Amino acid sequence: MRITIFNGSPHKEAGNTHIMVEAFTAGAREAGAKIENIFLADQEINPCIGCLACWVKTPGRCIHRDAMDQLLPKIVESDVIGFATPLYIDNASGITKNFMDRCIPLVDPHMETDAHGETRHVRIHEKPRYVLAISNCGFPEQSHFEVLRVLFQRIARNMDCRLLAEIYRSGGTLLSTTDQELRPFIEQYKVLLHAAGKEAVTHLGLSHDTITRLEQPLLPNPDYAKIYRERINQWFDEKLAEAGDL
């Protein structure tokens, strides 16, 4: 199985999104998958201008000559494409969305109905077969991923793909914490991500039990959200104080 993950975090290797991707793909690689992780922030990707040239003038080819010339082939050569993004304004990062828009040349402009009787564009490539979604946010509740859940389910449906896995991590700020009191909980979560990556490749999906465990708070404390807010507010107060001293 070939998995290509397109990471839309502007922080790249230093981001909390990458921490999740690393742990998940380590397990997937252990199960035999070939992994390629691409940081979109390193790529020159011009925004789609909606000219339709890739459909009616030069089918399958955008007017822009940029990194998408190399990235689009990677999509159709992969069994799984992964979208890894931090949550920005309830949605995918701008870098990620820009990349998504430029994937339009991968479909035919003609329309058809899917298995549910809904209209979509005609697919012209056999691959990818699966979509993987990975995201983290700076809020303590999982409910903040409501928009992303719908987005990636729709993307998979319109691409005529199955969702291999959706992994959303609230409280993602803690993933890179240096607080030794919290590190054991973070390491435990990374072990779970590793197991999820292995399971996803081996069984082409995640069990209900694994999904349930992935949705649990990072810290097993009934006051987790309150404690989290207090710590984050304290951190921002310290940063603002430092800025005021400059």
TrEMBL record:
Gene Ontology terms for molecular function: oxidoreductase activity
UniProt keyword terms in alphabetical order: Flavoprotein, FMN
Signal peptide: none
Bilayer-spanning residue ranges: none
Stored InterPro entries: Flavoprotein-like_sf, FMN_Rdtase-like_dom, ISF_SsuE-like
Keyword Flavoprotein: yes
Pfam families on file: FMN_red (PF03358)
Methyltransferase is among the record's keywords: no
Residue ranges occupied by any NADPH-dependent FMN reductase-like domain in the UniProt entry: 1-104
Protein name: Flavodoxin, putative
Species for this entry: Syntrophotalea carbinolica (strain DSM 2380 / NBRC 103641 / GraBd1) (Pelobacter carbinolicus)
